[in-house]
Design a protein that fits this description.
Blueprint: E1 2-11, E2 14-25, E3 30-34, H1 39-42, H2 44-53, E4 63-69, H3 81-91, E5 102-104, E6 107-108, E7 114-115, H4 120-130, E8 134-138, H5 142-145, E9 152-156, H6 159-166, H7 180-185, H8 200-212, E10 216-219, H9 226-232, H10 242-255, E11 268-269, H11 277-281, E12 282-283, E13 288-289, H12 291-294, E14 299-302, H13 310-314, H14 317-322, E15 324-329, E16 332-337, E17 341-346, H15 365-372, H16 377-381, E18 385-388, H17 394-397, H18 406-424, H19 435-441, H20 446-459, H21 463-480, H22 487-495
Parallel strand pairs: 3-4, 5-8, 8-9, 10-17, 10-18, 11-14, 14-17
Antiparallel strand pairs: 1-2, 2-4, 6-7, 12-13, 15-16
Helix pairs in contact: 2-3, 8-18, 8-21, 18-21, 20-22, 21-22
Length: 501
């Protein structure tokens, strides 16, 4: 007898349906799994066999054939354990239930308990798209699956419990659908701007970066607060929309890094400067998202910026321009989203005290030149805001004057983002404007054109620098509630560009 049970596999950032077919026939005892299974799927034979025995059933002592269709799609991971076990039980006539309209996912332990697996949200979205009514997943993954409406999501503890439900002996209760909006409203920022003394200029630049999705470079001596400022930026970013939260949750679920049932805040990723190219961009034999995709719609914070390998930094150039990264391997080509805000921090020289008013720099001119050339000009040109973070005086650090809270700054940022959504008719920031949108939304009057022309001639700005100045000026105008860009907006945007006379 041949049985068929529906499951799913993850390909890139999406799921694809997989039909698990099983056939029990006469012959020497053997279990054959076909359909491009990886090692983890091949090893499921032993897990499934022992789990079935320890769940009160018997494993067929004949030839068992399992096919994962379509056969030309690679099958990865341990999530096929549960559907394979059910298909074998159906084929051996130890269980009788209607598998139509049901999708099963889960890894089996030897005692028949279910362990969590990655990619449940993507599978749930695909299940809804296919018209599936019931989704059966490990208990730890149930809240993730319940984020998708229109499905009955059943949390399953063990194969024995699931068989009891399917055979109408002891019913499982579907999980109540998750209220995504309520979860998002309960987010609390980890660090408040008011807790950071001084550095008003840097805080202003971070507000602009958060409002328009602009890349920012913080430069200053050790201990001036660069890392604190970067981490506090997470508290002034606008709230995630429902669409963005589900998109991020799917990315983290597939990567096996989902901290709970839902991503409630914009991510801030902080990879070490020894991070490899593949870890940053993504890839591997079975391509997975890298740090730039994990920071999608959030912040990629690169501390000690010049200490990263040159080839790793250069890999950022294309994603910074396009907002996506394409990883090509023998198994196929995968495109991952990468619309992140780059926040980089660096010292001005190897010892860190070049230009410091208190401590004298110990570096030679050659050392300083070599250090500053570790980051290429084309990459620096893609960073919109270059900000100096100087050493704070003791009086400034201990001053009782209250600083502005992150909540207050966030209010202005949210208003600026709402203006951008209305302008572009979708979730998009000023930093993502193309040339056509730039000409339409960054029109300049005669005085403003003269300001830009003078700056271009004096500081030798490139064409890319001009476009980034206009984008930053548009964001500054949005923060001020202005319909058009004025000379003050342009002057502030020009102030944040590195200048060569």
């Amino acid at each position: 007898m041949i049985s068929k049970v529906l499951s799913a596999t993850v390909i890139g950032l999406d799921a694809a349906p997989v039909e698990v077919e099983a056939d029990v026939t006469n012959g020497l005892p053997a279990t054959i799994v076909v359909g491009l299974p990886d090692t983890a799927v091949q090893e499921s034979r032993e897990r499934v066999k022992t789990a079935i025995k320890n769940s009160g059933c018997f494993y067929p002592q004949t030839r068992v054939s399992v096919n994962l269709a379509p056969a030309d799609v690679p099958k990865l991971g341990t999530l096929f354990d549960l559907p394979i076990a059910l298909a074998i039980l159906l084929a051996s006539e130890q269980a009788s239930f209607e598998p139509k309209g049901k999708l099963f996912l889960g890894e089996l332990s030897l005692d028949g308990q279910l362990r969590s697996v990655p990619g449940i949200l993507a599978a749930a979205m695909k299940a809804r798209e296919l018209g599936v009514k019931e989704l059966y997943v490990p208990k730890e993954n149930a809240k993730e699956g319940a984020l998708v409406g229109g499905l009955k999501v059943f949390p399953v503890n063990s194969l024995k419990d699931l068989l009891g439900h399917l055979l109408d002996m002891e019913k499982l209760r579907p999980l109540k659908p998750q209220n995504v909006e309520e979860i998002l409203r309960n987010f609390q920022p980890p660090l408040d701007m008011k807790d950071i003394a001084g550095q008003e200029s840097a805080k202003r630049a971070l507000e602009i970066a958060a409002a328009g999705g602009h890349n920012i470079l913080l430069s200053g001596p050790p201990g001036s607060g660069k890392t604190l400022l970067a981490r506090a930026m997470a508290g002034i970013l606008p709230d995630l929309s429902l669409e963005e939260a589900l998109e991020l949750t799917k990315i983290y679920s597939i990567s096996g890094k989902l901290p709970g049932s839902l991503i409630t805040s914009r991510p801030i990723r902080n990879p070490h400067h020894t991070t490899s190219n593949v870890a940053l961009v993504g890839g591997g034999n079975n391509p997975k998202p890298g740090e730039i995709t994990l920071s999608h719609r959030g912040i990629l914070f690169l501390d000690e910026f010049p200490e990263f390998p040159r080839n790793v930094l250069e890999a950022l150039r294309q994603p910074l321009e396009d907002g996506v990264v394409t990883v090509s391997r023998a198994s196929g080509s995968f495109t991952f989203p990468a619309k992140f805000t780059l926040v980089a921090a660096q010292n001005p020289c190897p010892c860190g005290y070049l230009g410091d008013q208190v401590k004298r720099c110990q570096c030679s001119p050659g050392q300083i030149f070599k250090y500053q050339k570790k980051v290429s000009g084309p990459l620096l040109d893609r960073i919109d805001l270059h900000v100096e973070v100087p050493r704070l005086a003791y009086e400034k650090m201990t001053a009782p004057a209250p600083a502005e809270t992150s909540l207050s700054v966030k209010g202005r940022v949210q208003l600026a983002r709402s203006r951008q959504r209305a302008r572009f008719k979708k979730v998009k920031t000023n930093s993502e404007m193309d040339l056509v949108e730039l000409k339409e939304h960054c029109r300049l009057g005669e005085p403003e054109q003269q300001v830009v022309k003078t700056a271009m001639q004096r500081y030798n700005f490139s064409g890319r620098s001009l476009h980034r100045i206009l984008k930053v000026a548009r964001t500054i105008a949005d923060l001020a509630g202005l319909e058009t860009i004025n000379c003050d907006n342009l002057a502030e945007a020009i102030h944040y560009r590195p200048k060569t006379e």
